[in-house]
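for the record, two folds in this file. i put them one after another cuz i was lazy. first one right below, seq on top, structure tokens after. the second one comes after a little note so u can tell where it starts
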Amino acid sequence: MNELRNLLGRMLGRRPPALQVGALCLQPKTGRVLLITSRGTGRWIIPKGWPMDGRSVGGAALREAWEEAGVRGKVEETAFGRYSYDKRLTGGLSAPVEVQVHLVRVERLDKTFPERKERQRRWFTPDEAAELVDEAGLARLLRRLPG
């Protein structure tokens, strides 16, 4: 389906969505998921960012989880799923983005991490998290988790 959408978009002069990597951080013993707030609007989201040279996609997701939420853990290299959203850009514009989501089994949370003063982080059940996020595709992924 995404390939068809991208082909149609190219035919109509639109660019395909940019790819980001996301980390769906799980607390193994409880099944709870970690959400963080976005810097601009304070919405509840998962850690995510752009792919990184020299890192696998899963490795980039794990790095984003540490930078944005202080997560240390193990990442699954196989993607758990994908979702799309419109990234808000400066000047009021937006751009389509597709996020490839990887599960991260959290081993610990660092108290000191790069974005600790810019975000909040909190544990939720998958159903609670699904109700809090704005992106319907991310909510669907959260509802696929047990618990």
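(here's the note) second protein begins now
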Amino acid sequence: MSFLSKLGFDFVLNCTYPFSKFLTLEQFLFLGLLALTISLYFLFPYLLKHRLGIIAMFLLVAGGLLNGVERLATGCVKDYFNFFNLFHFNIADLIINTGILVSVYILCKKK
């Protein structure tokens, strides 16, 4: 079985949130807002100094908005990429992860 055959398309409605087995929705939202506040205070000003950083911030915000709007509109997020039957994700997730990778690259890059 080839790599590409394992990476398939599979429509899944994701109506849960990360760590939903361990956290209430209120706890998850609080931790998310705390992480966002810390990121805005420490990470984003540093990223604004770099051209790639602006792209990374755009990707992070755009992906978050795409998932957020879909979850608010439907109560779920539609995931359609199946990765080795381990997890499902969508285009917004790819955008967010690309933004994270670019951010890590900028933070680790030597001056």
